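Severity: low
Component: inverse-folding endpoint
Summary: output formatting inconsistent between runs
Steps to reproduce: submit the following structure tokens with default settings.
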């Protein structure tokens, strides 16, 4: 064992002094800083994964719209050609527009999806209906669970549907119509369960005063996250149409999530920075306590580098202990995260209400790069903080130090 490591470990032994207490506090501070940052980033990553999964399950991976005008013509011929592409799992010509629904004085303005019943079941992963069916024949409509709850309707009730053309057509009158609720769906995402309803394509065409055509042809694939394969599907789309990918359509959501994740991690990193300052304070106290020993070492002709190394190693040992403990704590918390949340809910502190997030459990996923980033930051901060008191110790005058 070399001399700096030997002396640093000797100084770390508990002696019931102020320096020992500060050392323990410093290690605990680094531990909490590392654990909190890893836990928060893992939970934010988990939320990003869940949102991406819900978006990919419910919304189209590619929306094909007309380059000129708002209506896609020859939609069925285009759909047939797209279905032949490798990787394409479903193609649905659709009319998606916002409408107004009312029932016994309650009003809601969701997006209505005009699609054939078989296409809806194939393209939208919403599972089995909570009640009723997804049969869109006749004057029928299917509602999301939250939309039905807000309107106060259930299967068998009739809702009044108002066409958006009423607001834009000056010389035509579009009378409201009544459609029967035949089914309730839930995809597990509050935004979609409350903001979308489904009716047959022909009924929505009539609602919009259209004889033919659709607003978009939606494509689902088996490779939405594979850039190469997904890109080959996009490149096969005829140039007469414009393709909008799911990343473009929901860019704001993912950008907001990325910014929130980075800003949260940056702010929480201040905990680690404060903990590192505790490490520096520990070393400053230690240099004062060990001033006579420092003077003796200098009198014995120990180099400035060796004396500095003692205190740098001492500080880095504190940081490494905090890092290891932080990794263990973060693993333990993430492993038992749901149990912790349930316990907090039992004592009246509900940190993850299912009614708000629409999820049964807190999602989380640990990324190796996050761990490397946190550990590297603490090591760099710790090394920087250790050099300052180490330099003060190495620059002490041996004569004055021995007399203290």
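Observed output (run 2 of 3):
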């Amino acid at each position: 064992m070399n001399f700096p490591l030997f002396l640093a470990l000797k100084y770390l032994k508990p002696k019931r002094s102020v320096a020992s207490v500060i050392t323990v506090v410093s290690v605990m501070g680094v531990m909490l800083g590392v654990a909190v940052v890893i836990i928060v980033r893992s939970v934010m990553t988990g939320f990003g994964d869940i949102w991406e999964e819900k978006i990919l399950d419910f919304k189209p991976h590619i929306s094909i719209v007309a380059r000129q005008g708002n209506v896609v013509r020859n939609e069925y011929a285009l759909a047939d050609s797209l279905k032949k592409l490798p990787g394409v799992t479903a193609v649905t010509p659709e009319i998606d527009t916002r409408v107004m629904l009312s029932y016994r004085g309650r009003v809601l303005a969701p997006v209505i999806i005009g699609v054939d019943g078989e296409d809806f079941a194939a393209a939208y992963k919403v599972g089995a209906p909570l009640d009723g069916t997804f049969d869109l024949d006749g004057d029928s409509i299917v509602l999301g669970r939250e939309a039905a709850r807000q309107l106060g309707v259930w299967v068998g009730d009739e809702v009044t549907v108002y066409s958006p053309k009423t607001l834009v057509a000056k010389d035509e009158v579009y009378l409201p119509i009544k459609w029967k609720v035949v089914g309730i769906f839930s995809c597990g995402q509050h935004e979609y369960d409350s903001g979308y309803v489904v009716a047959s394509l022909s009924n929505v065409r009539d609602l919009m005063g259209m004889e033919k055509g659709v607003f978009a042809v939606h494509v689902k694939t088996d490779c939405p996250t594979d850039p190469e394969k997904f890109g080959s599907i996009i490149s096969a789309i005829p140039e007469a149409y414009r393709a909008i990918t799911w990343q473009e359509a929901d860019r704001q959501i993912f950008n907001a999530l990325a910014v929130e994740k980075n800003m949260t991690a940056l702010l929480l990193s201040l905990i680690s920075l404060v903990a590192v300052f505790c490490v520096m304070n520990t070393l400053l106290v230690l240099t004062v306590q060990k001033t006579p020993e420092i003077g003796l070492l200098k009198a014995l002709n120990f180099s400035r580098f060796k004396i500095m190394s003692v205190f740098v190693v001492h500080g880095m040992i504190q940081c490494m202990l905090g890092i290891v403990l932080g990794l263990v704590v973060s693993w333990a918390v993430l492993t038992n995260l749901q149990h912790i949340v349930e316990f907090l809910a039992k004592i009246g502190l509900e940190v993850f209400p299912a009614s708000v997030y629409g999820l049964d459990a807190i999602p989380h996923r640990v990324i190796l790069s996050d761990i490397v980033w946190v550990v590297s930051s603490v090591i760099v901060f710790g090394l920087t903080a250790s050099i300052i008191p180490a330099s003060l110790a190495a620059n002490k005058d041996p004569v004055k130090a021995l007399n203290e």
